[in-house]
Amino acid sequence: MENKAKTRQQVADEYGVSVKTLSRWIKRRNLCIENGLLTPSTQKVLYDSLGLPPFANKTA
Q1: What does pTM read for this prediction?
Q2: pLDDT of 2
């Protein structure tokens, strides 16, 4: 995993889902995620809750 902020689109792409689906996953798990860029610490919370994404290390 990289140590920089990412957009929700980038994280959704890592999981192979849409931003809307990612938002649903976040809401269902009652995660308190701020709007805007996802910081490395926020990404850790997501990855711990959702599991590591299968597409995280693939390049476009």
Answers
A1: 0.83
A2: 64
